[in-house]
Amino acid sequence: MDAVDALNEIAFWLERGAAPTFKVQAFRKAAGVIADIEPDDLAERVRDGRLKRTKGIGDTTFQVIRQAVDGGVPDYLEKLRQGGAKPLAASGDGLRSLLRGDLHSHSNWSDGGSPIDLMADAARHLGREYLALTDHSPNLKIANGLSAERLNSQLEAVAAINDAYAGPTQDGGDFRLLRGIEVDILENGELDQTPEMLAKLDVVVASVHSKLRSDRRTMTERMLAGIRNPHTNVLGHCTGRLLQGSRGTRPESEFDAERVFAACAEAGVAVEINSRPERQDPPDNLMELALEAGCLFSIDSDAHAPGQLDFLQYGAERAERVGVPAERIITTWPLERLLDWLRSGD
Predict the structure, then answer these.
(1) Within 10 Å of residue 83's Cβ, how many Cβ atoms?
(2) Is residue 255 scored above 70 in pLDDT?
(3) pLDDT digits (tens, 9 = 90+) for 103-119
(4) What would the pLDDT profile of 290-302 be if each residue is shown by its tens digit?
(5) In whole angstroms, how far apart are CA 64 and each of 27, 114, 342?
(6) Where are the domains of the chain?
(7) pLDDT score at 174
């Protein structure tokens, strides 16, 4: 098989299994090193040992490349494929099979680890019909948030990718990369991007990323203002909690959930069911409250790497456990219905 494809697929399975970042990066880096080497030249460098002495190629990645060049599926990849045949989540199969897309993902334009095209390719590989690219807004400097100028450039990149997918050489079903952003709800309740730029997007996920320990009243008013902004489509990871992971743990933000979810239902803003294992946000009790309030939901991966796009399994498991009907989950909707809803704001 193609050696670059083998290395990238290994990275995908490692990301899916939440492997350490340095381990994933070793395979992504090796794929980048050999990406522009012609197949015959690559085979020659493998045979004469030059590749093994190349910076960015280690013992394991060299063996993967060697086995791919020899025409087989590398042993390392085959083992990961066998492990990947098992679902991530113990239940939720029924709802997971109905999911058509994902409205929250990040690329290396902000704090993701991979180029946009790799994120889109992975989504297609997983059978998604659409994926929203929602890199961060400028206030989140630690995540390399996008200024209006950079976001405008990204929209051109998204258009080019969609043009390529629509080309005559593409196989498989239709796929659309949606223009989006995860925009900060600032302390004053405003959204952290110009209204002109927000109006150009298909999807706006609005999230709180700062002052998460604000008092209940302050946080409630901040969230309500963000929800009522006419550009907001999805309320992202509403409590901001962290249950595990390299960033440590963080308690839920305090806010009046009844008022917040009532506002979501009234404004036609979907409540995100964030599928990241360290977030599991909102908690089950708040998901039940949002359900009672009449809210719509969006099961999203919040993926920062291609393999993490499969985290939707975790969100589907939680939504099914709580009893969220598929019809109330906008990421089960066909693309045209979803786009009509996003445009109408209803």
Answers:
(1) 11
(2) yes
(3) 999 999 999 999 999 99
(4) 999 999 999 999 9
(5) 9, 20, 44
(6) 3-84, 93-344
(7) 85
pLDDT average, residue stretch 143-164: 96
Query: Does residue 245 have a pLDDT over 90?
Result: no
Residue 219 CB contacts under 8 Å (≥ 6 apart), including other chains = 208, 253, 254, 255
CA distance 101 to 335: 8
Determine if residue 209 is left, alpha or beta; phi over 0 gives left, psi from -120 to 50 gives alpha, anything else beta: alpha
Counting Cα atoms < 13 Å in the Cβ hemisphere of 318 gives 25
Residue 181 near residue 205, CB atoms below 8 Å:
yes
Q: How far are the Cα atoms of 83, 131, 154, 293 from residue 119, in angstroms, in the given order?
A: 21, 9, 14, 34
CATH 1.20.1260, domain 3-84, yes or no? no
Question: In one letter, which amino acid is 219?
Answer: M
Coil, strand or helix: which one is 86? coil
The answer on pLDDT for 171 being more than 60 is no
Name 133's bridge partners: 179
Report the pLDDT value the prediction gives residue 172, as an integer from 0 to 100.
52
Tell me the mean pLDDT in the region 81-90: 92
Give me the CATH code for the 93-344 domain, please.
3.20.20.140
What letter represents residue 308's amino acid? Answer: Q
CA dihedral 15, 107, 279, 124 (to 10 degrees): -60
Please give the Cα distance from 109 to 304 (Å, whole number): 11
Tell me if 309 sits within 8 A of 273, measured CB to CB: no
Q: Tokens standing for 77?
A: 């990849």
Mean pLDDT of 125-136: 97
Sign of CA pseudo-dihedral 71, 72, 73, 74: negative
